[in-house]
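thought: user wants a sequence for this fold. calling inverse folding tool.
action: design(structure=
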């Protein structure tokens, strides 16, 4: 059984906290391979009856692309225990796509600050504080997440809905980002860590998939949290791939992903949120969401419908963002 999880820290944690105990429990040979944005194209390129993996992680972008190609199999929920413990938020945000896969959890944007600044990661507004001008950094690659930050601070629409508009309507978000002077826009997690450790940057947008590992190593110098305005997020559903030759084992594994013990083990080594509502807050995340109301307050989903709108304008928005990156780093 081959399972794709995200790359980097996420995959290492998934291997240790999820895959290894599964193999120990069932005497199986499940393994994980890392992936990022290439899973759909890999399945499409392989023979229909011999996919390159049996189960893949899928955020809203991967889900949308995979369902359009009819690559995922529906889940018979009568055979998978655990759904009754899941925050209703997961199904409510999913629409018709909830028929496919199982919700394991999700990731979000965290704010990271250097303790030397005396600034807490408690408000996205801190990016615009004069004290850290020229000392901020965001993601040059997945620029759609950067746009969520001014959207969270804007009162024009709820949550991050400002991001799901025409490029002309989104212009205020770009202009808000252009008030910043960036140290640099990072291209990946390694560069982000470097910028912070060398004190080139002191305030950053960081993905929850990386936050736990970074704080574990450098928590004496840095703090990270979900700011009070809430954050933008994606969900991690695990999808069974059509054509899998290990259908029953895949079902067993998906059921295992929904178990309380499995999710608690992963949560204890992560800053991602999980789908079950009955987990204990880990020591490193005291204000972990306890209720469905907490989920709705803290996490604004970059939804499937949102991707339909954003994706249709991708080229225009990508071009506009390149201008913003240039304007905030020149001089």
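)
observation: tool returned 331 residues.
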């Amino acid at each position: 059984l081959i399972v794709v999880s995200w790359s980097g820290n996420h995959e290492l944690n998934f291997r240790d906290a999820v895959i290894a105990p599964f193999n120990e429990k069932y005497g199986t040979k499940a393994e994980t391979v890392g992936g990022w944005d290439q899973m759909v194209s890999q399945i499409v390129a392989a023979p229909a009856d011999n996919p390159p993996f049996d189960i893949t992680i899928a955020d809203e972008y991967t889900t949308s692309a995979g369902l359009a190609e009819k690559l995922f199999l529906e889940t018979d929920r009568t055979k998978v225990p655990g759904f009754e413990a899941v925050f209703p938020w997961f199904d409510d945000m999913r629409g018709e796509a909830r028929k496919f896969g199982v919700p394991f959890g999700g990731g979000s944007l965290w704010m990271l600050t250097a303790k030397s600044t005396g600034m807490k990661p408690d408000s996205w507004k801190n990016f615009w504080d004069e004290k850290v001008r020229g000392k901020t950094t965001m993601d040059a690659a997945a620029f759609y997440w950067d746009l969520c930050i001014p959207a969270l601070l804007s009162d024009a629409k709820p949550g991050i809905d400002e991001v799901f508009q025409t490029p002309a309507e989104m212009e205020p978000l770009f202009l808000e980002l252009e008030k910043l002077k960036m140290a640099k826009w990072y291209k990946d997690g390694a560069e982000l860590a470097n910028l912070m450790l060398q004190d080139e940057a002191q305030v950053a947008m960081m993905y929850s998939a990386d936050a736990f590992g970074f704080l574990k190593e450098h928590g004496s110098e840095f703090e990270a949290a979900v700011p009070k305005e809430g954050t933008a997020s994606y969900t991690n559903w695990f999808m069974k791939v059509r054509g899998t030759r290990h259908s029953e084992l895949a079902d067993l594994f998906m059921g295992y992903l929904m178990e309380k013990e499995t999710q608690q083990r992963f949560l204890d080594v992560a800053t991602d949120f999980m789908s079950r509502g009955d987990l204990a807050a880990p020591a490193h995340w005291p204000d972990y969401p306890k209720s469905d109301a907490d989920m709705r307050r803290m996490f604004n989903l970059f939804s499937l419908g949102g991707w339909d709108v954003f994706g249709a304008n991708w080229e225009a928005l990508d071009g506009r963002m390149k201008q913003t990156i240039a304007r905030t780093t020149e001089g």
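thought: summarizing for user.
answer: Here is the designed sequence. The first helix runs from residue 9 to 26.
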